[in-house]
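Dear colleague,

As promised, here are the two records you asked about, laid out in our usual form so they can be pasted straight into your sheet.

NAME FIELD: protein one
SEQUENCE, THEN STRUCTURE:
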Amino acid sequence: MITKNKLKSIIAGTESYHVEQTVSTKNADKFCQAICAFSNDVSGSGKNGYLIIGAHDNGKLSGLKVDEQLLLQISNIRTDGNILPQPTMTVEKFNFKEGDVLVVEVQPSEFPPVRYRGRVWVRVGPRKSLATMAEEKILTERRLSNIHTFDAMPCLGTTIADLDVSYIKKEFLPKAFSEEMLAEDKRSLEELLATLGIYDLRYNCPTNGAIILFGKNPERYLPGSYVQYVRFKGKDKAGDIINEHKFSGNLCYELAKIDTFIETSVSQKRPVPVSVLREETVSKYPYWATRELLMNAVMHRDYETNAPVQFYEYDDRIEVQNSGGLYGKVSQDNFPNVSDYRNPFIAEAMKVLGYVNRFSRGVYRVQKELEENGNGKASFDFSLVTAFKAIVTRPETRPETTQIQDKILLAIKSKPKITRSELAELLNCSQYSIKHHLAQLVRKGIIKRKGSDRAGEWVL
């Protein structure tokens, strides 16, 4: 990260190819465009770029007070999914007598062109602008020279005819690029896909990632590129197979089918009586958490192997296992606080298609939703080395009460007339979650309601 002395000298100078100074703290578009432009480094200098918030162009500080909210707002730009591929950046606050300065240091991307909401921004001297076609070509060639991941390597023996071109044109490109850019762009489909890292112009063929995402027959070239669902009777693989399904097409179609399958066949919502006249709907496995675990397995798996993603359901749990263990910077000690991507271009495409909403926070949300549903937290098996497994238990197979339910019981014991809204505020949960846990406690006979909903009380 930049030192304080170097920052002083930069602020005292003028804006340049590597520096942008602003006193605004609200213009998120301006910040993102600057970070995108620094990431692209169209000149190829290899130097880091600096977005300096709290300084005027003439070098004077604005008297800004950097608070935690502003720090969080700027830091979240890296993982909010609007800049793809994700930028490599650090954010740091500096204190001066005249005020605070917030500095965003951005490293040039190894996989340009980097886009902000479908548009490529570059630095032209001391200002930023949209990239020309020639500049995008330079960045695309630089991306090709930096290829390291399997999903970006050419799938030799394939042609553009092996892809579902109709889907790409109608569904994918309008989401990957802005409407104005597509209307003005005169490049071929191959050149457009190459800027997204899913077509190799040197060999004139799609990449492995393109075949996985849009291929007409992905298994012909990548035999393990499918998801295998099996429902076993009992608690291990020795039981009879009750149901099985193979999701074997390209991801752009199969992810939608998987999404529906989880909601209708795995989540299995059912009514649970809360009182004589009312019922609440609960799920065996919460839809979003189950979906997120499976989408992560598809996104992070090793596609060089012939093993599919295994989605197995037993009487007491579900297991999601993908080939390939923890990748890159991620280790057992720092998971899930650190993220890295085995398939960055597949991850980028899944974000564009709407199957990944935001990077680096999915596991936290999964654990929260599972706890609120009564499943308890998912466990992760790191011992397999060449594979990664997530395990979620059914609510019925867990102890008589969960941690949240124990807290509810303590609250009821101290205040029998406590309301659902008060419980939700006390335990930092949604009212839906409180309703679900109260229903479970009633069904188990641990508590009951005495009197009306408005004036009654809970009885242990």
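NAME FIELD: protein two
SEQUENCE, THEN STRUCTURE:
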Amino acid sequence: MKSRLVGGIEVQRGSGNVYADLGLPDSEKLKIKTGLVVEIRKAMQQLGLTQLEAAKRMGITQPKVSDMMRGEFTNLSERKLMDCLTRLGYDIEICVRPAKSDVGHLVLAAA
């Protein structure tokens, strides 16, 4: 990673995936899950749902919604998080295409 000095402090530009920068395993999966949870939070706010109302719509318990809102979502699969979003009235599109490099990657793009 490239670094530079800012105010006498060495600063490194991130890769775009904080989990990878921290050296965590399954960093791509965590990045995708985080993006999905951010969208779930936005949907709940736009719909004016309480955690209990959102839980009922998403088919999970209120404590799981509470955990999710506090950043504890590793126990939920990407599939379950996508299911939660569709139950909140969102469409999800998955686009598969050849990678520009030898190894492809996952990207979550929110409209």
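A couple of things worth noting about protein two: Helices lie at 18-21, 27-47, 51-58, 62-69, 78-87. Residues 27-47 form the longest helix (21 residues).

Best,
R.
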